């Protein structure tokens, strides 16, 4: 057993042991209070209670041994009942001898009385044993729940890591293809600059800290590095507008959340249009939620289905939102019309990093 578990066990045992026997003593006093008793009888009751208290320590070691060996509950209680009766006889004898010593009149010792009275003490001690096993069972159930929650959290963290690393190669391969195109089209200076920008972006995105979220400000910095690379590809065909209120910058969002959505807009709109187009990124607070909109000019051949079919970006984004925020706490909605296509995100407004994958309400 780990050493740190020993103090915790005794901290939980002593308050229950002392508190339980104190309550039992008070209940006994209330029961016998209305009746008149001689001093010897009172001392006999005190001796019985005291001996029961010390007998419970013997039962404690017995119960702990039976529990550690995994003895079935019925057999364990049966063994405890036998020992409790034996201890009950001892407690009854102690009580009777105390009365005989302090009584004003001569009292005799009767074994039949001791054996019969021991049943009452036995029931008390057996109740103590049942309470011990009940508490141990409750603690075991709670420990199993904690372990299950820890396992589930680990599984969610692993899934988030898998989703995160699945997005990165997707983006990197696209960028490498763009660099290859620049080399083939005999544009070495642009290709060199794009490689330099990609290296800077790699340093940022490949690092994965203990938190699943970053501030929107940091996420936009990554987006800016990505857009710098894309501006090299598209030149004046790509226009970007960012409108984020100051209060939204400190809100936390999942790492690498926006880049796949912006890449989606470039692939299905800007890249298909000879004239290019504009991408607008806006963020504001809506009550206790963060609203992020990514809008782009549409190309006449573009459709909502085209965006939907871009499985890696949107599917993984939805999966990550579900893992971090829960099934219904974050939304991703696509809409189009009037020459614009919009991806709208609504997230719970949090200002602290999400260290593990526990659902944020």
From TrEMBL:
SUPFAM superfamilies: ATPase domain of HSP90 chaperone/DNA topoisomerase II/histidine kinase. One of its GO terms (molecular function) is kinase activity. The keyword Transferase applies. InterPro entries: Bact_2-comp_sensor_kinase, HATPase_C_sf, Sig_transdc_His_kin_internal. Residues 158-238 form the Signal transduction histidine kinase internal region domain. This is Histidine kinase. The chain crosses the membrane at residues 12-36, 42-62, 74-95, 115-135. It comes from Dyella flagellata. The keyword Transferase applies. Pfam families: His_kinase. It comes from the Bacteria. Keywords: Kinase, Membrane, Transferase, Transmembrane, Transmembrane helix.
């Amino acid at each position: 057993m780990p050493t740190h578990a020993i103090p915790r066990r005794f901290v939980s045992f002593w308050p229950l042991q002392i508190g339980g026997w104190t309550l039992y003593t008070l209940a006994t006093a209330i029961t016998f209070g209305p009746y008149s008793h001689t001093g010897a009888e009172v001392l006999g009751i005190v001796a019985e209670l005291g001996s029961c208290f010390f007998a419970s320590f013997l039962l404690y070691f017995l119960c702990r041994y039976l529990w550690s060996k995994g003895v079935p509950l019925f057999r364990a209680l049966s063994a405890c009942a036998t020992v409790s009766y034996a201890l009950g006889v001892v407690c009854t004898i102690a009580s009777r001898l105390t009365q005989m010593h302090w009584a004003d009149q001569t009292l005799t010792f009767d074994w039949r009385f001791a054996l019969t009275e021991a049943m009452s003490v036995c029931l008390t001690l057996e109740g103590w044993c049942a309470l011990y096993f009940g508490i141990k069972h409750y603690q075991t159930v709670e420990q199993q729940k904690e372990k299950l929650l820890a396992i589930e959290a680990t599984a969610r963290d692993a899934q988030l890591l898998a989703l995160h690393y699945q997005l990165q190669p997707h983006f990197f391969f696209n960028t490498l293809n763009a660099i290859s195109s620049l080399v083939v089209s005999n544009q070495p200076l642009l290709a060199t600059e794009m490689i330099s920008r990609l290296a800077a972006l790699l340093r940022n995105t490949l690092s994965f800290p203990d938190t699943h979220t970053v501030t929107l400000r940091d996420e936009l910095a990554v987006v800016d590095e990505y857009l710098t690379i894309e501006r090299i590809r598209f030149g004046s065909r790509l226009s970007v507008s960012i409108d984020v209120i100051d209060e939204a910058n400190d809100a936390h969002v999942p790492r690498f959340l926006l880049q796949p959505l912006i890449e989606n807009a470039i692939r299905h709109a800007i890249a298909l249009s000879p004239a290019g187009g504009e991408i607008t990124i806006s963020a504001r607070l809506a009550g206790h939620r963060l609203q992020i909109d990514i809008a782009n000019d549409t190309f006449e051949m573009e459709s909502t289905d085209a965006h939907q079919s871009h499985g890696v970006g949107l599917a993984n984004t939805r999966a990550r939102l579900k893992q971090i925020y829960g099934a219904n706490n974050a939304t991703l909605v696509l809409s189009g019309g009037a020459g614009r296509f919009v991806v709208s995100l609504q997230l719970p407004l949090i200002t602290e990093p999400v260290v593990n994958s526990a659902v944020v309400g």
